[in-house]
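Run log // design_07
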């Protein structure tokens, strides 16, 4: 009789041991998940955004690639956050109904809460002289009309529990009906020591949190022939007029006839822009700004001659584009 009981007892003991181990693994997995959620919530609590609301709910469903919803086409995202210092997130979109956009959703992946941050999507007036992608589009005669900008300002409060942790933060533009377009990922690691810099990263809206306009007001040096306030008083209004002119060109041309008309219209808009700016203002003022920005950009060491030459080349590209104007 004992010979028959032993295998049964052994099998029961084995099943109990397996069940206990499985339960322990489940508990470990659950503990890890709980910790991840807690850390994501801690980061959410540590973040603050101007004009925002925190909501306890899953974030809105993504509508990636659907033109009826605002799609983020470019971004500038801080690589490092410094405790109690402002940071800026810049997003661009070519969404045609900018008046429907009321801000952005910011969600730390895994958190039980997300932010609705209220901000406008609007025409920046002129492409940033520190956006290499924008400069290249302009130089080759392919400036995209309707490319608009949103800026979100926030800050990080000190929170020891998240130091050294890595997170994925989802960001999407928010429509007035509570829907979003695509989400982009902001890969963020909180440094052990939060006294780092706040240089930017992304798809090319600008270079870090530098106030370019403040420099534009004072870009008068011995090396460049750019008068006081000349950038603000002359170049910025010319860009505003250029963008307004481009809105009258065929939008989203598809047929060859529409493409030809857009090319002609674009060329004439650039020709009018050149009249208001002049070669000296463009080369000297942009060259001055670019040279002054150099200390904030570790990727290159720009000399005065290189800064001036870069914008001389771009001016030559504008002249070539304008030559296609037929009125």
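design_07 sequence
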């Amino acid at each position: 009789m004992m010979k028959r009981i032993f295998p049964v007892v052994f099998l029961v003991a084995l099943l109990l041991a397996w069940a206990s181990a499985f339960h322990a693994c489940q508990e470990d997995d659950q503990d890890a998940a709980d910790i991840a959620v807690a850390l994501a919530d801690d980061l959410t609590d540590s973040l603050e955004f101007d004009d925002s609301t925190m909501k306890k709910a899953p974030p809105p469903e993504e509508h990636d690639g659907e033109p009826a919803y605002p799609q983020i086409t470019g971004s500038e995202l801080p690589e490092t956050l410094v405790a109690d210092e402002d940071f800026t997130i810049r997003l661009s979109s070519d969404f045609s109904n900018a008046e429907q956009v009321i801000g952005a959703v910011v969600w730390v992946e895994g958190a039980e809460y997300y932010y609705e941050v209220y901000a406008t999507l609007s025409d920046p007036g002129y492409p940033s002289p520190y956006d290499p992608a924008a400069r290249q589009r302009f130089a080759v005669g392919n400036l995209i009309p309707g490319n608009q900008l949103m800026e979100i300002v926030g800050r990080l409060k000190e929170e020891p529990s998240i130091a050294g942790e890595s997170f994925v933060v989802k960001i999407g533009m928010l429509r007035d009906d509570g829907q979003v377009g695509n989400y982009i990922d902001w890969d963020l690691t909180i440094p052990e020591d939060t006294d780092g810099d706040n240089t930017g990263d992304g798809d090319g809206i600008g270079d870090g949190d530098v106030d370019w306009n403040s420099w534009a007001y004072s870009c008068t040096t011995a090396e460049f022939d750019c008068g006081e306030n000349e950038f603000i008083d002359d170049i910025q209004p010319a860009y505003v007029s250029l963008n307004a002119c481009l809105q009258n060109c065929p939008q989203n041309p598809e047929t060859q006839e529409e493409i030809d008309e857009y090319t002609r219209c674009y060329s004439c808009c650039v020709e009018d822009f050149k009249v208001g700016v002049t070669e000296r203002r463009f080369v000297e003022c942009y060259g001055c700004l670019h040279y002054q920005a150099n200390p904030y950009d570790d990727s290159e060491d720009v000399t005065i001659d290189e800064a001036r030459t870069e914008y001389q080349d771009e001016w030559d590209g504008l002249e070539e584009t304008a030559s296609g104007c037929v009125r």
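Confidence is low (pLDDT under 50) at residues 1-10, 125-146, 194-215, 295-299.
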